[in-house]
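Suppose you are handed a protein chain with no further information: no name, no annotation, nothing but its sequence. What can you learn? This example shows the usual starting point.
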Amino acid sequence: MVIGVDAGATTTRCVVATVDGTVVGRGTAGGANRNSSGVEVSASIEAALTEALRRIDRATIAAGVLGAAGSSGAGREAFRAAAGRAWRSAGLTGELGTVTDLEVAFAAGTPEPDGVLLLAGTGALAARFAAGALEQRCDGYGWLLGDEGSAVWIAVRALRAVLAALDGRGEPTSLVDAAIAHFAAAGGTPEEKAGGTPGEKAVGTPAEKVVGMPGEKAGGTPGEKTGGVREEMAQALIAATFAMPPARLGGFAPAVSAAAEQDDAVAVRICATATGRLLHTFDHVGPPPGAVVVLAGSVLLTPGPVARQVRAGLLARTGAEPRTARDGAAGAAALAISRVTGAPVASVTHARLTR
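A reasonable first move is to predict its three-dimensional structure. Written in structure tokens, the prediction is:
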């Protein structure tokens, strides 16, 4: 049997499968991106491995492929070391290979060796493959320096618009109430983490403080709220967002999509800009005519304006519907099978793994 692991920024997934593609075990754990997850990478990988191997004899594992975001370039050796620690701690002795999240995502979408991956989840990038090898990539530089069109990128632009609406620099938007509701539910951070002193409530961290401002309702436009309430709401959002790992900010992106579907002008512009950035990134990896295109990541695989507009743009460019990569761990398992058998994974095996 083989193991495939897709260690993402927010979730780590593991698949155990036979060499004919039959999945016999699955496990999940928290994110394992050293740049944005805020955790020790090997711990998340080991947790996913342990869950997937609960009823499986570890001696039957011939090989494994572990892929991760943030594991290329300067992060390659650090991820390889973390993966090795997790592999040994899980009691595994089979051959271990490490790759980036690009290889596992592309392998999850197609058994073909040539094509282009367009990914927009927590991060965002495009990558062109030839003969199974990465030929060129664009973006994927992380939440601070790139990832244009990603969930985090969308959320950060929306939060900037919300703060601008609250202090009067920007136009009113339904994203104000959406942000207060979302980060009240996701925040709930103790005052010690938000920088408060013992006995104090951190501004806006408990849900009742963020949503139920004194004498005010969270509803209504910013212009209907007093300046003090708007400032309190802004500070509440700042406290909640700075208290969480950057990767978790992407959880606000679905609310931005929902607002765009309801014709909120600010959300519509953010989603349109995200679409343009993603297609621009795709164009710059030099996709050959008729190339297989694989889509990956929550932004592109969840129904919404960005997914819809990107698909339309790709169809206009390539003349074919893109394929989808919904299980990166299965893609990693496909790569592991290929290592064991010494041959490309058959279409029927790939379909069995990824169905």
